[in-house]
């Protein structure tokens, strides 16, 4: 899966980790489709990636808008006939209205986070599934995070102990992890490998660029899981050091 006949779609690929994943897969010779809802930023991202030598194309894709998802799937089908790699990277962190006790707006904010991080990933995967099933070696990578680890979140003296409780973002990533296991189970017999990854504390717009890792470092594990051989894992939750406790 390292030639230009390998077709990869990355959602939310106009910036941050998604953009770095797109660059990493393009560097490996894949034809990369940059999915993004912001057309101006998407086109700028495509231009940068092409300037670096990548075979890269833009797709209008808002993971919360069914019409754009359907149109993206139709365009991929018409142009390429299949999809080999899907990276569900698009995600949002939400705001302080997801803190327990924040008031009557809590459910709406949690729902907003889930719409992108969970239901958006499911909607895109469902739309692309017929195309992935046409691939000789389909790969699905869901960008999660250690916040989605129930073990890590429940550890009273662990890395998240001093952070405020949030009802949206961590729960959405835990849900995405569960979704990952179910797609892995469903697609195992078809040879499609489905995994969730943690990019680590990466400096992105979503965390105010407070992370201590570059986007290239954060993207590396996604690129690795997107290019797994047939003997690679499926239904796993991993970072660059290996499996993460659920």
Overall body shape: globular
Number of helices: 7
Q: What do we call the CATH topology?
A: Rossmann fold
The major β-sheet equals:
8 strands, mixed
How much helix is in the residues? 40-55%
Notes on the structure:
The protein is an alpha/beta fold and 246 residues long. The chain has one domain: NAD(P)-binding Rossmann-like Domain (Rossmann fold), CATH 3.40.50.720. The chain contains seven helices and eight strands. The protein has helices at residues 16-27, 39-51, 66-79, 106-132, 150-154, 169-187, 215-226, and strands at residues 7-11, 31-36, 55-60, 85-88, 139-143, 193-197, 237-239, 242-243. Strands 3-2-1-4-5-6-7-8 form an eight-stranded mixed beta sheet, with helices on both faces. α3 (66-79) runs parallel beside α4 and α4 (106-132) runs parallel beside α6. It is globular. The two termini are 29 Å apart.
